Amino acid sequence: MSINFKADVYETMIDNFAKSLTYIPVTKTLDNTTGDEAFADGTTSTITGAFFRKEDQWIQDKPALIQNADAVLLVKKTVTVNKNDKITYESETYRVDKVIVRRLGTTVFYNAAQLFKV
Length: 118
Prior knowledge:
The chain has one domain: Beta Barrel (Thrombin, subunit H). 9% of the residues lie in helices and 51% in strands. It is built from one helix and eight strands. The strands form two sheets. The chain has a six-stranded antiparallel β-barrel. Strands 2-3 form a two-stranded antiparallel ribbon.
């Protein structure tokens, strides 16, 4: 028996739970002398995605996406979110710790980002 997954099902799910979020890309640089990391915020924009905080009432333990994180963000495969970028929602700012590309075989369905409060 073969199961036929379609990426548009995940896009519909993300649309159904979508929230408007402030997205701040962050650039990391290393000092040539000391090797210290420095982070610089880029230009702020607005993205949409399914955003769930740890304290929200949903069954976050089942998919294990929030394991050891404060929130999770699910975005369509066309939305780019990278480690260290910032997401702001309802006056709370989160830093992207890990981005997981969710796929079956070579087909990408969506991206999931684990977030921590700044």
